[in-house]
Structure formats: structure tokens, C-alpha cells
Amino acid sequence: MEDVDHRALGNALDLFHQQDEGPGMIFWHPRGLALYRAVEGYIHARMQQAGFQEIRTPQLLARSLWEQSGHWDKFGANMYALDNDGHAACLKPMSCPCHVQIFNKRVRSWRELPIRYAEFGAVHRAESSGSLHGLMRARAFTQDDAHVFCTEEQVVSELVRFCVLLRHVYADFGFAGFDVALSTRPAQRAGDDAMWDRAEALLAQAAVAADLAVRIQPGEGAFYGPKLEFQLTDRYGRSWQCGTAQLDYVLPERLEANYIGRDGAKARPVMIHHAVLGSLERFIGVLLEHHDGWLPGWLAPDQIVVANVGEREYAYADELAMRFADVGLRVLPDLRSERLPRKIVDARAYRVPVLAIAGAREADCASVSLRRRDGAQITLPVDEALAQLQREFAAPSADNAALREALRASSVLSNAAFVAT
Fold this sequence. Notes:
The protein is of the alpha+beta class. It contains 14 helices and 20 strands. Belongs to the class-II aminoacyl-tRNA synthetase family. It holds the Pfam family HGTP_anticodon.
């Protein structure tokens, strides 16, 4: 089996393109944006299930904030900076300092914790031109940034809940499992050794409580804390690092995040940085290559092509397309004056899961013939076809009872594990 290139698929399937006027930037076409929105909507639903509140923060912020957080010293060379009327500012390369600003906006009580924020954060990074690679390495992309502000006693519970979430998400996207690495303190870092000892021990404890087998990556942690890195394996055996969970005592200190503890005194929260996909653009590139463009039906940019056989069935096919669209299905009408074999070939080239055929026989008895990727075909009454395809193409997040129960169970078990240590 030969490898496929998401850039070639993006062109062949009319999903996106890039051009010299915007190096490292993505031009999303209608079909590509439909896929993007399907991924985004799914993650939004999953994060909401897991108790995260969605927020939105600015893309352009004063450089002084990035200096205070430590990002300017660490990543300044890869940040887009500008001077406006004598005020230095930067396009954000990540959203974590912004989330602290929302946490800090009012006095917090220990009773409110954990507080969970999530954002589809548009970020920019000045990557070198030689490192750019389609969706996999871009200068402008969207991160599914999430942050938890909690007490130290809640850390293990929150990390285990996140691991439960990841298992469900990756399975829904068609990945059977993942490997996990524990990245420990780098040579250049913030915080003292005692803090790093505690943070690394908590991450290791959470991995055990979540039943994860981790390998150690010495020195690969972030400058503010250690992290768990979740790596997917695609159909070609390639490994892709996507999800992360990073434990951070540094940013709450530098950005003066506080809450009122049980004793009435100010206390520092612990901050957990989460990402399920990492970059939506990069994850879509991985998805396209993993599935060779034949995405699961709930993700397909167009789920159904409706094709008429002849001119007489034009109006009937047009009506069918509207009925499919009315129930929320993504439909591509093919009402060209081409022969049906040509339409079958074109629908397959676009990797559309189902071709709905409207011929004279179907029009006469208010039915439709559904043709699958493997050539299998069945004729059904229109109402029955609508109901069947609605069920087939429903996003996995529509059935969330199993995940909710798993999240509840993980919180109970991991809290017990913390107390026992």
C-alpha cells in the first residue's frame, strides 16, 4: 500500500489550497470547510460533555503579556510582532495566557474549582519556510486549546477524565489506539526542582490511574511543566503526536492567578493545558491520509450525491436533493446532462459515501436507489432512505451516555487513587 499525500487529496477533492501570496496559510474551499466544521462541531460537543466552557480570546495582545508569561523569552523568534503607535504587540502563538486573564477577571472560590475552559484558538507562528508542509506544518492554524484551573488534589482526577475523553474521541475518528509518552523537565526551564518533582510524580500517577503504559522522554517537557503526549498510529504505521496534557505551576505564579481557599487565604491554582487534536488543520491532514480520503460518513464533506439518470428525472432528483438537505444531510446534486456511469465515476473520485440515483422507475414509485462505494445497490422508499441515512451519518457525539458514565467513573476512581497515596 502506497502512502498518500493530504495535499494531493486536498486538490483532488477540492478541499483546500495554498499559494505563494500566503505561505503557510490555508485557503479552505466549501467542501474543505464542511469537513473542518464537522470536526470542530464534534470536538465542541465532546468538550461540552466533559464539562468545558467555550470561550474566545483576542489574537493580538501587548508584548508585555508574553514577556510576563515567559513566552517571549522562549518563543519570541517564532512570534509575529508589530509596533502600533509605539505599542509593541504580538499575534498569539497559543492561548494559555489569555485563559488566565479570564480566570483572573474576578475573585474565585475553592468551591468553583475545577474551572475548565476550551477555545478553538486561531494562532500564528513564524515557522521557517523550509519546515512548512501543507496542513501538517503551517504558520496560521487553529488549536483546540483547553485549560483546567484546579487544586493539586484535583489534578489526577482531571487528567484521568481527559484520558477517558481521548480514548472515545480517537476511536470515533477511526484510530484503534494510541501510545503515550511522559516528557520530563528540559534543561532550560522555569520553576525549581521540587516543583518539577511534584509535577512529574502527579503525571505518572495519573497515567497509572488511567491505565496507560507510558514511555519516558527525558528533557522533552515544556519550559513550564512536564507533559503527556498522545501519539496516534495511522494505517501506514506512521506515528502522529496529537493530544497533550501539560501540568503547569509556573504560569499561575507569573500571571498571578489566585483563588480563595478553604481557610479564607489566597492560594494558587494548578493549571492543566489540554489539547485533544492539537491543530485542527494538522489533524485533518492526518485524517485524510489515514482514510485515503474515504472519510467516515459523518465526516464526509458531501455525504450523498443525488444524480438523475435522464432529463425527465431532473425535477425529481432536484426534489430528492432538497429533501435530503432538509434533514441535515450534506448533499451534492449532480444534475448534469452526463450519462449515469460518468456520474458514478465522479462521485467516487470525490470520495462520496453514497450515490442516490433518481431514474424513471424511482420517480414513478417515489423511491430512490442508494449505491455504495463497493457497488452494492438497494432501492428504498424515500422516507425509509432518509431515516436510514440520518442514522448512518449521525455524528458519534449524538450518543453520549457511555462517555458521560465513563467520565463519572474516572473521577471517582482517580480521586480515590490520589487519597490513597
